Amino acid sequence: MSDATRAEVAIVACAELFRGDGEIVASPMGLIPQFGAKLARQTFEPDLLLSDGEAFLLTPQSDTAGNDKIIEGWQPFKKMLDVIVPHGTRHVVMGASQIDRFGNQNISAIGDHSRPTRQLLGVRGAPGNTVNHRTSYWVPRHSTRVFVDTVDVVSGVGYDNAQKAGPAASKFHDVHRVVTNLGVFDFASPDHSMRIVSLHPGVTLQDVTENTAFAVDDSDVTETRTPTIEELHLIRDVLDPKCLRDREVRL
Predict the structure, then answer these.
(1) CA separation for the pair 113, 64 (Å, rounded)
(2) How far apart are CA 141 and CA 94, in angstroms?
(3) For residues 181 and 6, is the Cβ–Cβ distance under 8 A?
(4) Which of 79, 127, 218, 229 is the most exposed place for a label (fewest CB within 10 A)?
(5) Pfam families attached here (predicted)?
């Protein structure tokens, strides 16, 4: 039996987001997605390109000696916007203050649009990301405050709104998966509404339904795989020896 923690299972689930991506730019936002992308790069996706978020492509940390900043290439912001983003060669993992059944994401504001009760980040790059290349989401605390029936502001475009907007929005639209502290979800149902792909070990369907404001397809649920011995070594001894992961996902 694996002794992996929930945070370590979540890191592997985030790594699995990139399986099959090949030589594209990964843009994981947030601690757990960053560990996941590095884990994927160091195990089953060796061609994945990782940016420092500014102007360089870097080799991920490869050992505890600190060889974590080997520059592989130059990728200025203009090149990212002109070449990478509009041509589908990127997979971004964003957070979500709200997300609905069709994958519409809100990171902009909470409440009525004319008088919001909470001002958040603004839509940032979410509209462009979701209509131009693959996008996934990471939610560290799965709750009815996040998984809502309807988002207050559409920042990242979901399947229903991409279809309404026509080919310009739907041609490259690809909301891939949502990983949370409870499980993994996708939109592969006939109407592109959210379904459960897998529950993390120890999580029940009731845990998900009680923390989700809309009905989720649970017709084909599996258990999220646990880390291999090699992956646990990389997570615990190489990528996150300070256990920062446990601050974000607690069990």
Answers:
(1) 48
(2) 14
(3) yes
(4) 229
(5) CoA_trans
Range of the domain at 194: 6-248
At which residue do the structure tokens 């929930």 appear? 6
Written in H, E and C, the secondary structure of the chain is CCCCCHHHHHHHHHHHCCCCCCCCEEEECCHHHHHHHHHHHHCCCCCCEEECCCCEEEECCCCCCCCCCEEEEECCHHHHHHHHHHHCCEEEEECCCEECCCCCEECCEECCCCCCCEECCCCCCHHHHHHHCEEEEEECCCCCCCECCCCCCCCECCHHHHHHHCHHHHCCCEEEEEEECCEEEECCCCCCCCEEEEECCCCCHHHHHHCCCCCCECCCCEECCCCCHHHHHHHHHHHCCCCCHHHHCCC
Domain membership of residue 48 (yes or no) is yes
Residue 179, both tokens: 């990983």
Which pLDDT does position 147 carry in this prediction?
A: 98
Question: What is the chain's mean pLDDT, rounded?
Answer: 91
List, for residues 76-120, the tens digit of each pLDDT value.
777 767 766 666 788 999 999 999 999 999 999 999 988 999 999
Whether 166 and 158 have beta carbons less than 8 Å apart is answered as no
pLDDT attached to residue 230: 97
Question: What's the domain count of the chain?
Answer: 1
In a domain, 218, yes or no: yes
Beta bridge partners of 185: 178, 196
CATH of the domain at 99: 3.40.1080.10
* Structural domain includes residue 75: yes
